[in-house]
Amino acid sequence: MPSEQAEAREQALAERLRSSLRGEVIDRSHPGYEEARAVWNGLIDRRPAVIARCAGTADVVEAVAAAREHRPVVSIRGGGHQVAGSAVCDDGLVIDLSHMKGVHVDPSARTARAQAGVTWGELDRETQLHGLVTPGGEISATGIAGLTLGGGLGFVMRTFGLSCDSVRSLEIVTADGTVRTASREEEPDIFWAARGGGRGLGVVTSFEFGLHPLGPEVAGVLVLHPYERAEEVLRAWRDATYTAPETVTPEILLWSVPADPAIPQELHRSHCVMVGAVYGGPPGDGATAALAPQRELGPPLMDLSGTVPYVTLQSANTWRFPDGERYFMKSHFMEDLTDEAIRTLVDWDSRRPTPESLIVIRTLGGAVARVGPDDSAFAHRSARYNVSIDAGWRDPALDEAAIGWARSAWDAMKPFSSGGTYVNFAGLGEDASELRGAVFGSHEERLERIRAAYDPEGLFAPAARRP
After folding, report:
1. Looking at the whole model, is its pTM more than 0.85?
2. Shared domain check, 236 and 195
């Protein structure tokens, strides 16, 4: 519990916010406090002093003003779905945008304006009314803000780029309380930094995305292979990625067979190799031909490939990562996937502590690599793959074993890495200093200069240091 002096400071901050916000102010005594402080990753158990649940941009301006006056540690919550749980802080102020859910789609201009509390599932629902998409993540419950600010790997990135590549403009409240629009023409330094630079620039309140024709039906591959063929399938998959067209975004997972009614029960939760790919264009003969190499990697355990609604594709894995369970994820960017790297991956995957844990390899290139290496803060345009070691578990008694497995597997893959790490899969808070250069690469110095220019007193500096 906070001391009497700290309690008085917290009360003063809460009263300041209650006097100026239209949204709800939640302190430790509020009946909704426990629910409001919870985030997706049940491993995160932080107790902020005050949560300012903003109803709109004007509330954000007031929350930033209160933070300047009272100087608490500040964190910013969008969807609250990030692995490291940086949306919440201990004993500080959470500027909570999770109830800011406005979405407006302009199908003629092929743009969407979405507030920072929107999730990818909510955005996809609106854009797919018009057969349009902006590239999002692979879990529909993920917030658009955190994923986009960190870059945004996803199912159609080789065709349409990262999530941040479709940003046309954004609205941000900087540390001085000014509401700014950042684009290529206005506030270009903020616009550069916000596309891959993570957090610490201010409070982004909305994004304008460019949209691309896709859907409502998309063609995809989902093939399950027996685990005893893991190395063979990985080598064949790697070779197929070298010639994959930009319309195809392949990935491969070392995971467990899902408990899906369409799959025989005796296979549920057993180890397998999953090959997935999405075609970034209309279904038909062209899609079938382009996806064929991803389906023809040897005799499968099951082939579930076909055509599905885009919103179904985007939400297909959401149930496998439920709120409140425990997660730890850490990744490497890689220029190649050597036979030795494949053997190392399979070796460590065979030691997985739980069926929910997995290893994912995503293929970059295509539209991701066509953006200039210095055109945005995202520092890993040239990488061919991202390898993510993802521990998932329910029982707190497994914390040490699950995190230890993921850290050890990540360490074992380090010799094969290009030295880069994806900020959205970068471990927990204690990993921040170790990974700083790996996350932002040669862009780190420019990012620091931009942050200092807009936040000279360091109001958002603690947020900038988090993964």
Report:
1. yes
2. no
